[in-house]
Amino acid sequence: MDYLFAPPPVVAVPIVGRTERFPVHRVYCVGRNYEEHAKEMGFTGREPPFFFLKPADAVVVCPPGETTPVPYPSLTANLHHEIELVVAIGQGGRNIPVARALEHVWGYAVGLDMTRRDLQSDMKKQGRPWCIGKAYDHSAPMGPITPAGQAPGVLTAAIALTVNGADRQRSSIDKLIWNVAETIAHLSSAWELQPGDLIFTGTPEGVAAVVPGDVLEGTVEGLTPISVRIA
Ligand code: MN
């Protein structure tokens, strides 16, 4: 087929222990999915899960053992980190029941839902979409994907983020309000999931600002950690 111009390259994430890469279809994100983070954002109680998306090319691949530069974005004076467990979907589907949901997971990774918090807050106040706060370029740094079979303890693992070596976020994946299976069930009732979809599952409490030069180290026990420097 002839294209008017070169189509964009496929966004693809490395896989632990494999030479093939995981081609990214969509990037879904869950909002306010840890109770203590919901509280720090001014909300209480269990609300139905809600979702937003980032473009696939917002993903910044963070190779293991390296500190990956991530540019400080335009228009913001309050860039926040959100450390998250990322679920990589290997088998698509719609209306997936909770009991079958984990069969659709190919693997897991550590990711950062970077957020222009000042712009997101403005949009919230005005009842407008969050895109400019959440879905900007380079807003989704993530590490390599570990196949689910090699990450048996991930759903109860510790999750943490340090900035310049100091603790910022520390929690456990079992504190998710809507767990991975429930999230997949809800999400697949609204969209048909496809192989290659990524789900950023939400961040625990402790979100805060970073500035150029800061080094962020994110971990989920049992997965490859990520390290980024705000450039
Ligand atoms: Mn988030």
Describe this structure in words.
The structure is a single chain. This protein has 231 residues and is of the alpha+beta class. It contains 5 helices and 18 strands. The strands form 5 sheets. The protein has a 6-stranded mixed sheet, covered by helices on one side. Strands 6-18-17-13-14 form a 5-stranded mixed sheet, with no helix packed on it. A hairpin with a 5-residue loop joins strand 17 and strand 18 (226-230). The mean pLDDT is 97. The structure holds manganese (II) ion (MN). Manganese (II) ion (MN) binds at residues 29, 82, 84, 113, 200, 202-203.
Ordered list of secondary-structure elements with their pairings:
Blueprint: E1 12-14, E2 21-23, E3 27-30, H1 35-40, E4 51-54, E5 59-61, E6 68-70, E7 79-80, E8 83-89, H2 98-101, E9 105-112, E10 115-116, H3 117-126, H4 131-134, E11 140-142, E12 146-147, E13 158-163, E14 166-172, H5 180-190, E15 198-200, E16 209-210, E17 215-220, E18 226-230
Parallel strand pairs: 3-15, 5-11, 6-18
Antiparallel strand pairs: 1-2, 3-4, 7-10, 7-16, 8-9, 8-15, 9-12, 13-14, 13-17, 17-18
Bound molecules: manganese (II) ion.
